[in-house]
Amino acid sequence: MKHVSMKMTVAGGALLALSGGAMAQENISFWYESANPDQQVWMQDILIDGFEAENPDYKLTIDYRGNELDKQLRVAMLSGSGPDVVYTPGPSYVAPMAQNGQLLALDEYAGKYGWNDSILPVFLEMGRYDGKLYALPKTYETLGLYYNKSLFDENGWSVPTTIAELETLADQMLEKDIQPFSAGNADWRGANEWFVSIVLNSVAGPDNVYAALKGEMPWTAEPFVEAIETLNGWWEKGYFGANYFSIESGEQTIDLLAAGKAGMSPNGTWAFQNVPTYFDKAGTEPGFVGFPSKSGDPVFALGVGSTFSIAASSDVADGAAAVIDHIFSPGFYGTMGSVWQGEWNMPLRDLSGVEMSADVPPLYTQAMADLAESVGEGSYGYTTWTFLPPATNNALINGIEEVWLDRVSVPEYLATIDAQFQTEMAEGKVPAIPNR
Amino acid sequence: MHRLYVIPTLVINAAIIAIPALLTIMLAFYRWDGISSPVFVGLSNFESLWHDRVFWTALTNNLIWTVIFLTVPIAMGLLAATMMLVARRGSTFFQVVYFLPVIIATAITARIWQGMIYSPITGIFGLLERYGLEVANPLTQVHTALYGIAVVDLWHWWGFLCVIFFAALRQVPQDQVEAARVEGATFFQLMRYVLLPGIKPTIMLMLIMTVIWSFLVFDFVYILTQGGPAYSSEVLSTLAYRSAFYDLAVGKAAAVSVVISMFGLVATFFYIRAQAKEFEE
Fold first, then answer.
1. Which of A244, B123, B157, B180 gives the lowest tally of CB atoms within 10 Å of its CB?
2. Contacts of residue A390 in chain B, CB cutoff 8 Å?
3. For chain A, which residues make up each domain, given as ranges?
4. pLDDT tens-digit readout, A20-32
5. Predicted model pTM
6. Which residues of chain A have a CB within 8 Å of the CB of B228?
7. What CATH number does the domain located at A143-302+379-426 have?
8. CA torsion sign, A144 to A147 to A149 to A153?
C-alpha cells in the first residue's frame, strides 16, 4: 500500500510538473486547409517541432479545416473567435478583413524581423491596405506549359514559343489522335480560370491586363476579345478533348500527359507535386516551359494562392508573428520545399542561403527561378484568382463554360465580367495591384 | 403547467430556426460581403435576381426537378410496394435492397456515380466506350446534366418512398382487399378503388414533402456538377451557396433563400391544410 501511494505521489508530481511546463507555454492556433497524412507529418516535424524548438515559450497547434477553410474563417473572424495565425485564401480577402479591423497591422513586426528586406517588394505591396501591411503571401506560383518530352522527341516536335507555333503543333497532335491539352475541371471548376489567365496574359498581354485591373481599360477592349476568342478557338478545335468536364484537374491530367495520351498540359506550378509520381510510373520524361505568347516571349503569370496575417483579436500576436517569421526563414523554405514542392514557395528575396534536397526536380527549381526573375524584372503577368475581386472572378470561371458551350458570345461574356468588375471596383474590393 | 413542456422545443426552434430565418429575411434587403458591415439596399437584391438569367435557369431547373420527383420515384415506389404486397414472399429482402441506397451517405453515392459509373476514364461508361459503345457522360452535357444528377438522386431516393408506401399499404384493412378480390376485381381495379384511396393521406404527404425537398436540393448537384456545365444544372440552393461563399454577396444569397422558402411555404400551407382536414375526418 505504501508502495502504491509512493507511486501515486511520483505520478502526481510528474503530472504537476508537466502541467506547470505546459502552462508556461502560450498556445498559438493556426488553421490550415487540407493535408494528406504525409504532409501532416511534414507539418509536424518541420513546422511545429521546428518552431517550438526555436521558440520554447510557445506551443503551436495546427487545425486541419479542409477545403472549406475560407468559409469557416470568415465566420470565425467576424465573431472574433478565429485563429491567431490567419491563413486567407488570397489577397482579395485581405482588404475587407483589414477594413473591418479583423487583422493586425504587421508593420511593427516587419521592422523587427526585417521582412521589408527579406521579402520581394511586389508581394509586400499586395498585402498592404490603407498604407499598412496586413498580410504576407504564403506561396507564389505561376502557370506554364507542361509537356511530355519523350513524346515530343519521338515525334520530332519542338517546344512552341509562340501562339502560332502552339496551334500548329496542337493541330499535328490532333491528326495523330493525341489530345493536345490534358485538362479537366470535374473536381475543381476553378480550373477554368487557369486557361483564361493564360490567354489574358499570353495573347492580350500583361500591360493590358494591368491597365484593366487599374480601371484604365475596360475588359471589353479588343485585346481581351482576341484573347478569349483564341481560347474559344482552342476549345472548338478540340484541344481540350471530349472529356474536359469529366477529368479531374489534379492527378488525372498529369497521368494522361505522362502516359502520352495528351501531349501538353497548361497547368500551374502546384502540379509539380504529381509530376514525379506519374512520369516515373509511365517511364517518360516531363518538360515545362513558360506558356508561349503572341510575341514569343514567355509570360509568367504571377499567382498568390494564400496569405498569412495575424488576427486583431489574438492575445499571442508576438507568438503568431514568430510563427510567420519561422515560415519565412531560409531553413524552413529549404526543408519544406525539399519534400513538398509547389506549396511552400515563400517569396524570399535572397535564396542563396536555401539548401534544397537533391531529390527536388530540376524542372521545378528552374520554373521557380524563371518566375522569380520575371517578378524581379517587373515583367510578370497576372493570375485572375490573385488580382480579380471575388464576384468578377466567379463570373469569369463559370462564364467561360457558357462561351465554350455556345450559350453566350465572347463580347457578352466580357461585358458581364466588365460590369461585375466596375461594381466591385466601386466597392473597393479590387485587391492591391503593385505598380509595373 | 403542462404547457411548460413545450418550452424546451420552443427555445430550440427559436434559436436554430426562427432567429436565423428572420436574419436571412432581413439580410435579403442588405448588401453584405460576410466580412464588413451590411448596407441597407432595399429591394435591390430581388431586382438584380429578376434580371439575372442564371436565377431563372436555376428556378426552371428546380421546377423540372420537382416534376421529376413528383412522378418518377412516386410511381416507382408505389409500383414496387404494391408488388411486394401482392407477392409477400421475399418482401422483407426486397425492402432491404430497395432501402439500402437511402442509408448510404449522399457524398459517397455521388462519388460512386461520378467516378465509377459516369466517368469516361474510371467508370462503366469508359468501359463501354472501350468496347465500342460510346455513351457520353450526362453530367458534362448542358442538356442532360440535370437529368444525370436526377438519376443519381432517384436511385438514392425511391427506395425510401417504396418502404413508406409499403408500410401504408399494409395498414389498408385486409377485409376490403379480400372483398374486392371476392368481387372479382382485377389488379388495377384493386389499386384504383381500394389500395390507392386507402393510402391517399400518405401519398399526399409525400407529394407535399417532395415539393419542399425539391426546392432544397443541393448536395447531389453541388458534388456532381457544382451547377455546371455553363450553369445548366444550377438550382436555387447552389446559386445561393455560390453567391454567399464565392461572390461574397450574402444579401443576394439571402434573397435567393427567401425565394426558396416561398415555395416551401406554399407547400407547407397545403400540407397543414391537408393535415387539418385529415384530423377533422
1. B180
2. 246-248
3. 2-141+304-377, 143-302+379-426
4. 444 578 999 999 9
5. 0.84
6. 189, 245, 398, 401
7. 3.40.190.10
8. negative
